[in-house]
Write a structure and sequence with these properties.
The chain is 29% helix and 28% strand. It has one domain: Vaccinia Virus protein VP39 (Rossmann fold). By secondary structure, the protein is an alpha/beta fold. The strands form 2 sheets. Strands 3-2-1-4-5-7-6-8 form an 8-stranded mixed sheet. It has a two-stranded antiparallel ribbon with strand order 9-10. Strand 9 and strand 10 form a beta hairpin. The relative contact order is 0.15. The radius of gyration is 16 Å and the shape is globular. It is built from 7 helices and 10 strands.
Length: 215
């Protein structure tokens, strides 16, 4: 599974105030979890991944990182995952294609809803998040309203949404969304990734430069 812009955005953008415990749902090979370990220097991070090969790669990546003593990979569906303590920050780059969008690859399976619907994701987050915790995710912009509706039924309410476009002329394609268990005024802003091909905006550089070797 290649490093994608969606994962980089979510790992750099998701907000929390000094989180002690972080959960990454559908963690893949561990990119977002590793970014959060870099950002939050004392947080303990649990990464849950259903796909065995991705889980094994994440275990390898965690053990060979500077943050290995704070990171744990778990090979389970999130619906079966239990923990006696709640999490201050939960993140997910969830599957969003319908189940018929499948070419048989691990990457395709990871991106479709067959294994984890929006409803199941929200139920799992509501069960595992602390009362003052945040839940961050990234979705296609066209799924924004659907997800907010499902989340609200599970007592998760939007507090910030950043809509992402590839360049100034492009349509908004992604929504970075932050939820909590407390209703509040929802803050909106926008982020443009490139000014032109391979020329990044100051906003994108400021958000992500700590995670690139060259930026």
């Amino acid at each position: 599974m290649k490093v994608g812009v969606d994962g980089v955005l979510l790992g750099a953008w998701s907000a929390a105030e000094n989180p002690k415990r972080i959960l990454d749902i559908g963690s893949g090979t561990g990119l977002i979890a590793l970014m959060l370990a870099q950002r939050f220097e004392t947080a303990e991070i649990t990464a849950v991944e259903i796909n065995r090969s991705a889980f094994e790669e994440s275990e390898f990546n965690f053990k060979n990182s500077p943050f290995s003593d704070r990171m744990k990979a778990v090979n389970l569906p999130i619906q079966e995952f239990e923990d006696e303590n709640k999490f201050d920050l939960i993140v997910s780059n969830p599957p969003y294609f319908e189940p018929n969008h499948n070419d048989g690859t691990d990457r395709s399976l990871a991106r479709q809803k067959a294994e984890l619907s929006f409803e199941e994701l929200c139920k799992s987050v509501e069960r595992l998040i602390d009362t003052t915790g945040n839940f961050g995710l990234i979705l296609p912009y066209l799924s924004e309203d659907e997800f907010i509706s499902i989340a609200s039924k599970n007592q998760l309410f939007p507090k910030k949404i950043t809509r992402v476009r590839g360049n100034p002329q492009a349509e908004v394609k992604r929504s970075l969304m932050l939820f909590s268990k407390t209703k509040s005024n929802n803050e909106f802003d926008e982020l443009t990734i490139e000014q032109s091909r391979n020329v990044y905006t100051e906003e994108y550089i400021g958000l992500t430069k700590e995670f690139y070797l060259k930026m």
